[in-house]
Design brief:
It is a single chain. With about 250 residues, this protein is α/β, with parallel strands linked by helices. It folds into 2 domains: about 170 residues, Rossmann fold, CATH 3.40.50; about 70 residues, no CATH class. It is about 40% helix and about 25% strand. The chain is built from 9 helices and 10 strands. Strands 6-7-8-3-9-10 form a 6-stranded mixed sheet. A 4-stranded antiparallel sheet has the order 2-1-4-5, with helices on one face. Helix 5 runs parallel beside helix 6 and helix 6 packs parallel to helix 7. The longest helix has 17 residues. The structure holds adenosine-5'-triphosphate. Adenosine-5'-triphosphate (ATP) binds next to helix 1. The site of adenosine-5'-triphosphate has 11 residues, from helix 1. This is ABC transporter ATP-binding protein. Keywords: ATP-binding, Nucleotide-binding, Transport. GO terms for molecular function: ATP binding; ATP hydrolysis activity.
Amino acid sequence: MIRVESLYKSFGEEPVLKGITTTFEQGKTNLIIGQSGSGKTVFLKCLLGLFTPEEGRIFFKEQAIDEMNIDQQRKLREDMGMVFQGSALFDSMNIEENVMFPLRMFSEKPREEMLERVNEVLARVNLEGVNSKYPSEISGGMQKRVAIARAIVNNPSFLFCDEPNSGLDPRTAILIDNLIQEITKEYNITTVINTHDMNSVMEIGENIVFLEKGVLAWQGNNREIFMTDNKNVTNFVYSSDLFKKIREIQIKEK
Ligand SMILES: Nc1ncnc2c1ncn2[C@@H]1O[C@H](COP(=O)(O)OP(=O)(O)OP(=O)(O)O)[C@@H](O)[C@H]1O
């Protein structure tokens, strides 16, 4: 579980996060959604420790980051997996080396042991036998699977995904969403996903945090999001062409 208390972050005079308080639950796919510029990436970067908030606190398993010593912070880093937008694989490394990278960063295990773990996670994302291929030799969907394998190789308690669906066709996007959700349940991970894909909201929105100009304007799940009276949320939901058409049909039928 991750608990966030009154988080404030600004750049110069510009306040970006204006007092966010929320909880991301363990074993669930927690989504951060909102219009472009609402502060989703800044929020995710605060959770990852890439930005330091001016005010507020973030608790990982009930321990505040600002109370952790260097050793505890290092352990927390090891306990975090990250799927970057566009996969961010290392082009000059083959798939095996890419997935092994976080293991080498945090452990001094013998290579055979690391390889065993690499093969285990590659099998989990249905990518056996691609070890010696390079990122440019596999499809975008496969690259995402490799990115997921790399993110879970250290068996993390926390998984962060920045727009994991970007650049994928709708069918592959749903497969990736489902894979992330399955892994979240299987390993009981606290997963936080930054997205503006309404299909993801529908498919895996177990706990959705809606940001509006740096404020947490609404929180709920993928059933509740269609019932809310919050106008900003409704505008966001029906901003996608598909949902706009469904909405028009619903209104006509009333
Ligand atoms: N490093 C930075 N320095 C200054 N301003 C920043 C920085 N990072 C983000 N901002 C500002 O913070 C605001 C929120 O940006 P953020 O990237 O979090 O939005 P977002 O909701 O993730 O948008 P998108 O969906 O387009 O990625 C924007 O006004 C942006 O210009």
